[in-house]
Design a protein that fits this description.
The chain is mostly helical and 245 residues long. The protein contains 12 helices and no strands. It has helices at residues 8-20, 26-36, 40-53, 58-70, 74-89, 92-104, 108-123, 146-154, 158-171, 176-189, 199-217, 221-241.
């Protein structure tokens, strides 16, 4: 962007366009032209009027902060920056969605960056950032989400993921999806033994054992005895895994 003051004809055209359409974003160009021309008062008035109609214009808040700083009003400039930050915080969901998509693609590190941005935007401006070693853990900021929990799980931090899911489930005790995922994580985190065989597996073992007994009483006694021994060993193993031995 050129720092040269606008030509009088250009400035007049901008003034006319903004006067005819106060809701146009041209107010930003006009204010910037005033600033380049050193007409700080008019730049400030133009931005204030424009923000009255379009308070979501982050760029306008930033430009007004610059003007106020030049006018020797640091408190006013700070207020404009804070208002701009408040507007940006409404878009935290953008980074939350980005984190989820990145995580689904296995891009865990990028997902963590996006999640951190989402968390910071949701939290809003609360003073100077703390030193790196003093930054609060994500869960302490009250921004627990399944996406954050899955990022921790993907990084091997199962305990942190479990803590987040427990807090989420406390808020939504009827959420079966959260309950199921928590159970999965708790099982993997406890290094649980392989899941116990179901009734169907045991029933099949018992049926095969019956067939082996029949063979032992018939012509294939020797083969039936060997098969029976193997089946009894499998059944004992299955019962031990089920906690019934």
């Amino acid at each position: 962007m050129s720092s040269q003051p606008p030509a009088p004809a250009e400035l007049a055209l901008l003034e006319s366009a903004v006067a005819e359409n106060p809701g146009s974003r041209l107010f930003l160009r006009l204010a910037r032209a005033y600033l380049q021309a050193g007409r700080l008062g008019q730049a400030s008035q133009t931005l204030t009027r424009g923000l009255g109609l379009q308070p979501w214009e982050v760029e306008a808040h930033q430009l007004l902060a610059e003007v106020l700083q030049k006018q020797g009003d640091p408190d006013g400039a700070l207020a404009q920056f804070c208002q701009a930050a408040a507007v940006l915080s409404r878009h935290a969901g953008l980074y939350q969605g980005l984190a989820g998509l990145l995580m689904a693609q296995g891009r865990g590190q990028e997902a963590m960056v996006a999640q951190r941005l989402a968390r910071d935007l949701q939290t809003g401006f609360a003073g100077p950032p703390a030193p790196e070693h003093q930054v609060a853990a994500p869960e302490a900021a009250g921004q627990d989400t399944p996406t954050l929990a899955e990022i921790y799980a993907a990084q091997g931090l199962t305990a942190k993921a479990v803590e987040i899911y427990r807090r989420l489930l406390a808020l939504e005790p009827d959420n079966q999806r959260l309950a199921q995922r928590l159970a999965q994580l708790e099982g993997s985190g406890l290094d649980a033994p392989p899941s116990s065989p179901g009734r169907e597996v045991l029933a099949r073992l018992e049926a095969l054992q019956g067939a082996a007994l029949a063979r032992r009483g018939g012509d294939g006694a020797e083969g039936g005895q060997a098969l029976l021994g193997r089946l009894e060993a499998l059944q004992r193993s299955a019962l031990e895994r089920a906690g019934q031995a």
